[in-house]
Amino acid sequence: MLNEFKKFIARGNVVDLAVGVIIGSSFSAIVTSLVNNIFTPLIGIVFGGVDFSGLSFTIKDSVIMYGAFIQSVFDFLITALCLFIIVKIMNKLNSDIHRLSKKGQEEVKEEKTELPKKSDELVVLEEIRNLLQEKKKGKNK
């Protein structure tokens, strides 16, 4: 069982997953910072600093804090919008890079397919060769 566990851990999939989780958590910190420190204050300026977290009502001895839920949904929507914008920008940059790379490859292909221009002497010699070959074929028939 220990050997099987070692094989499982050593697989590329597990290592890739671990790297993905670590990168994802680091990226999550960046997005959270972007939302909390840049976008939320800007949205607060536009909407007058709306904070729903204090909204609640009481039923008997229980306090229902529906404002905290509304604030969480609002925070989620802001985060999702920011992430959407980031992904949109990254996709645009990647498509531009891919397009430029493809254009460069096409230019290299065009350069390779262009044959050097034949000299006038070579053209005349090829015509003479073709005429001699045709004449030779005519005699063989």
Question: Can you tell me about this structure?
Answer:
The chain has two domains: 1-50; 51-141. The chain has 141 residues and is mainly alpha-helical. A two-stranded antiparallel sheet has the order 1-2. The chain has helices at residues 2-10, 12-47, 66-113, 120-140, and strands at 57-59, 62-64. The termini are far apart. Helices cover 81% and strands 4% of the residues. The protein has four helices and two strands, in the order ααββαα.
How would the blueprint of this fold be written?
Elements: H1 2-10, H2 12-47, E1 57-59, E2 62-64, H3 66-113, H4 120-140
Antiparallel strand pairs: 1-2
Helix-residue proportion: over 70%
Kindly report how far apart the N and C termini lie: 84 Å
Mean pLDDT: 80
**Structural class based on helices, strands and sheet pairing:** mainly alpha
Radius of gyration from the CA trace? Answer: 35 Å
Number of helices: 4
Strand fraction equals under 5%
Tell me the number of strands. 2
Secondary-structure element order, as H and E?
Answer: HHEEHH
Strand order within the widest beta sheet: 1-2
Shape: elongated
| Major sheet summary line | 2 strands, antiparallel
When the domains are counted, the total is 2
Q: List low-pLDDT spans.
A: none
